[in-house]
Amino acid sequence: MQFIPCSRHVLINKCCAQPGLSEEQSRQFRSFAEILAAYQHYVSQNKLEKMKQAYAYLSPNQELPLFPKLSNEELKLQAEILAEAFGSTLREANFQELKQVDIEKAFKTFSLVPVNTDVNLNDYQRIKLFYRGSSTKEVSVKRFLRTKKIVFENYDRVAVLLHIKDKHYFHGKKDNGDLNFSPGKVYLYLYKNIPHYDLELLFPNVKISMSWKDKLMLGVPALGAAIPMAIKVLPSLGLLIGAVALVVFGLDLGGKFNVEAGDKKAIYPLLVAVLSTSIALGGFAVRQYVKYKSKRLEFLKKVTDVLFFKSLDVSQGTLNAIVDSAEEEQTKEAILIYTLMVNENKPLSEDEITKKVNAWIKKEFLVDSEVNIQRALIQLQGLQAPYLKEDEKSVVEKLPDGRYQVSEPVIAKYILDYIWDHAFQYAN
């Protein structure tokens, strides 16, 4: 686990309730955490606005055309800006990127949902998949006449960015009229609890078909029902074939109809044969078609259950969600590191801080963690107030020997207050 498994508010309460802290010290910690979280929110909103501006031209859900119109090169630039900001934000939220080989491996493996799937990766200009939190799970699935246990990797959170190629690529393709996505647009998704083997279901161009087992389950009963039905309609069918061969082609197949040419009722046996054959064959065809459609709807429902009940956000809502998650993670890391360093009241090396952070998480939540503290340390070093004394200018200062020294909560709050006062320089 590479993240702190609790909300920011729970973490602040735990930090302020540590043994040995006086009421005043707890109050100082809480107020420092409050102003730090507010500042982190301000920084995160700037990132969100940058992504929203780029995504406005690439969203498939844009209601009205935007002005000015962008050239193809300008659209490519906006797509690159979005993809870069999307990836960096997710990494700040402690997501990890899935490699191309991992994605292709998932496509080559049978899905846990009992359907055959096919995804054409060539339809995409850019594919980005990120996950956070994974665990190994086991499930029992039916494979023909036996039950098989499958061990798979399950992702707690999966974020997806899919940039579809432009319309020129799809021009002339056989299935051009059946596209359920917009060429040239970027699709964003956020899911929960996705098995590694079901990643292909997250792609909008996935094609679903029956497995060989389901085709046999549908075809064998149909063949069994067709044989007795064919025996029943064989006399009527023979009469119909004989009549058509005689009247249309002039062929005498050796049959005798025992009717007079002038008898108006002579056509009745032929009509009865046509009607009975049509009803029998038509009824059989309708029954098989209804069974096929029911089976297809069953498959589509299973896929829909995966996409609907596991979906957390789509399109611009995904941007809001990942920015909020990154803000939460960065704030928690900074608060925890700062609190543990203040409690030690002495300079610490990066390795010592890492061990203390992971040990604290193990003690409080009974889980093993590997939190990367480098980003948080850089962030805390960047919080500076030039007017203070040399040894109090930043919340965390890196000493010449490589260790890190933390400022007292009162000084740290002064530094953040100074940064807030100078965030906007509009007044004289």
Helix-strand makeup class: alpha+beta
**Poorly predicted residue ranges:** 261-266
Give the H and E element order: HHHEHEEEHEEHHEHHHEEH
Helix content: 40-55%
Radius of gyration: 34 Å
Terminal residue distance: 48 Å
Number of distinct beta strands: 9
Share in β-strands: 15-25%
Main sheet properties: 5 strands, antiparallel
Shape descriptor: elongated
- Give the strand line-up of the largest sheet: 1-3-4-5-7
| Overall pLDDT level | 79
The figure for the number of domains is 3
Number of helix segments? Answer: 11
What would you say this structure looks like, in words?
- It is a single chain.
- α2 packs parallel to α11, α6 packs antiparallel against α7 and α8 crosses α10.
- About 1% of the residues have low confidence.
- β3 and β4 form a beta hairpin.
- The protein is of the alpha+beta class and 428 residues long.
- The chain has 11 helices and 9 strands.
- The protein has 3 domains: 139 residues, no CATH class; 117 residues, no CATH class; 90 residues.
